[in-house]
Design brief:
binds uridine-diphosphate-N-acetylglucosamine; 7-stranded parallel β-sheet; Rossmann fold; 6-stranded parallel β-sheet; 17 helices; globular; alpha/beta; binds uridine-5'-diphosphate
Length: about 350
């Protein structure tokens, strides 16, 4: 079987690595990078650290408006699928790279398989558009949780739906064994004595009021707050005149590699984030999470008490970050860490 995998952004490299390891045991994979993320710390570092081969092709589309970026990817991906004629096209998550590949593949011969199918937050963000459209174009819908299965059923999608569990859990289990703990001494933090934060959603970074409220609230925490910042966040902090204060009050760093990030996440007392992946990873690692969004697609993390949705409300951020505790129990709706194996079984059956 020959599978053409499309990736483009940081979380997709992490998830594709877990599936690639299984896939390449017995099958051929062509890894196509759209070039949506291109800075070394958002892209190359993951290929270096995650034990996956370099992409077979990089379309080099770079950053642009949603429409232009997606269109450039669509055009490049269509040509690749035509040239390679794979047995399946595999896409991950909800980025513009996911949508572009879905549009291209859905009008061509090979079946389209969507990993992380059925995730819904109910909000009007670009990622929700990408998720919904990709699911409605896909032939194989690989769902990470029972809730995702229900969301698909609610939208009338019943064919090709499979519960696989979450490949992010597979990836995390692999990385936890290989976590780079040296990052703790690099940043001068000790186990369970600091706060970890990430902010990259445009709803937070591009709105000066929200960004300032988040930075101020984090800065007020008496503990050290480590914030590995996405380049967009750094650019907006500078643009809105918030950078100097953030640099003074927080441990503001470049993004770190996945093995370092997993070490930080495991060791932190609490994480404050607007990331989808980080909400889940903190749940897997028993680190309480405060989510800087009004809604989430990973609803089980909130229902079980391990995650609190606070948006960009400064008072709510202060209160929940300070008061975060670990609930006594944790459900495990995201499978058993063998999602990649199940995905391979499904793909092998249909190709
Ligand atoms: C994208 C995804 C988001 C995902 C995130 C993972 C979409 C619509 N968004 O958001 O779902 O959570 O990736 O991290 O697909 N930039 C750089 N260097 C890079 C890449 C981007 O400086 O290597 C800057 C550019 O100014 C760019 C901005 O970051 O305009 C945003 O990048 P983009 O890929 O459009 O969205 P992300 O916020 O990274
Ligand atoms: N991550 C990382 N280094 C960082 C920040 C995040 O390796 O400095 C990893 C994180 O562990 C997770 C993924 O990047 O696997 C999440 O990416 P992001 O938050 O950008 O995207 P989202 O999950 O929100 O789509």
């Amino acid at each position: 079987m020959k599978v053409l995998t499309v990736v483009g952004a940081r979380p997709q490299f992490v998830k594709a690595a877990a599936v690639s390891r299984e896939l390449r045991r017995d099958h051929e994979e062509l890894l196509v990078h759209t070039g949506q993320h291109y800075d070394d710390e958002l892209s190359a570092v993951f290929f270096d650290e995650l034990d996956i081969p370099r992409p077979d092709a990089n379309l080099g589309v770079g950053s642009d408006s949603h429409g232009r970026q997606t269109a450039a990817m669509l055009s490049g991906l269509e040509a690749r699928i035509e040239d390679e004629n794979p047995d399946a096209v595999l896409v991950y998550g909800d980025t513009n790279s996911t949508l572009a590949a879905a549009i291209a593949a859905s009008k061509m011969e090979p079946p389209l398989a969507h990993v992380e199918a059925g995730m819904r937050s109910g909000s009007d963000i670009p990622e929700e558009t990408n998720r919904v459209l990709t699911d409605h174009a896909a032939d194989l819908l690989l769902a990470p949780s029972p809730d995702a299965m229900e969301n698909l059923a609610d939208e009338g999608i019943s064919e090709g739906v499979h519960f696989t569990g979450d490949v992010g859990y597979d990836a995390l289990l692999w990385a936890r064994e290989r976590a780079d703990w040296s990052v703790l001494s690099d940043f001068g933090v000790a186990d369970e004595e600091f706060v970890l934060a990430t902010v990259h959603r445009d709803t937070n970074t591009d709105d000066p009021t929200r960004l300032e409220a988040i930075v101020d609230a984090l800065a007020d925490d008496p503990r050290q707050v480590v914030l590995p910042a996405h380049p967009r966040t750094v650019a907006r902090l500078k643009e809105f005149g918030l950078y100097e204060a953030a640099k003074r009050d927080l441990t503001l760093t470049d993004p770190v590699g996945y093995r370092q990030f997993v070490a930080l996440l495991d060791a932190a007392t609490v994480v404050a984030t607007d990331s989808g992946g980080v909400q889940k990873e903190s749940f897997f690692l028993d680190t309480p999470c405060v989510t800087l969004r009004e809604e989430t697609e990973w609803v089980e993390t909130v229902e079980s008490g391990w995650n609190a949705l606070v948006g960009a409300d400064g008072a709510a951020i202060r209160e929940t970050v300070t008061g975060a505790t670990k609930p006594d129990e944790k459900p495990m709706p995201y499978g058993d860490g063998n999602a990649a194996k199940r995905i391979m079984e499904v793909l092998s059956d249909v190709t």
